[in-house]
Amino acid sequence: MKRLVDLLQELDQTTSTNKKIKALAAYFKEAEAEDACWALFLLMGNKIPTKINRIFLQEAFCEFVNMPLWLFKESASHVGDESETMALLRGPISNAKEPPRLGEFVTKELLSLKKLSPEEIKQKLFEWWAIFDEQVLFLLHKCF
């Protein structure tokens, strides 16, 4: 996941098409096949099929950070992106855990969410919000 996070930051920090092509080429040349497939899936704007919808995610996040939903929505309207808003509101943590490989996380964690109850899903989200840095959370939120 960390390598895709780095790629997204590289792509976001340049307007040069050539630099974007080089960054993408480098990522896909180095990435393991499973990671590359999921990265392409996500870069094309697709979402991982889970039982999580935007309202559920927003409400769970507001519970996690102890914030009223209306304030989150107001913040998101100013930032312009809900995934980024959640990452920014959670803020940096000093002991962030290194995320697993993208393919491993998608297959073992995200796809298994479909089998969980809403309360179990919320507990997973709380766990991830507590251990991953803001850049990983931004990517994670984009997956839903």
Protein architecture, described:
The chain is mainly alpha-helical. Helices cover 69% and strands 0% of the residues. The mean pLDDT is 94.
Short summary:
By secondary structure, this protein is an all-alpha fold.
Shape: globular
Number of strands: 0
The assigned structural class equals mainly alpha
Order of helices and strands: HHHHHHHHH
What's the alpha carbon Rg, rounded to whole Å? 15 Å
Q: Level of helix content?
A: 55-70%
Query: Tell me about the biggest sheet?
Result: none
* Percentage of residues in strands: under 5%
User: Tally the helices: what do you get?
Assistant: 9
Low-pLDDT windows of residues: none
List the SSEs and their pairings.
Blueprint: H1 2-12, H2 17-30, H3 33-43, H4 54-65, H5 69-79, H6 82-90, H7 102-110, H8 118-131, H9 134-142
Helix pairs in contact: 1-2, 3-7, 4-8, 5-6, 6-9
What tags apply to this protein structure?
144 residues; mainly alpha; 9 helices; 69% helix; globular
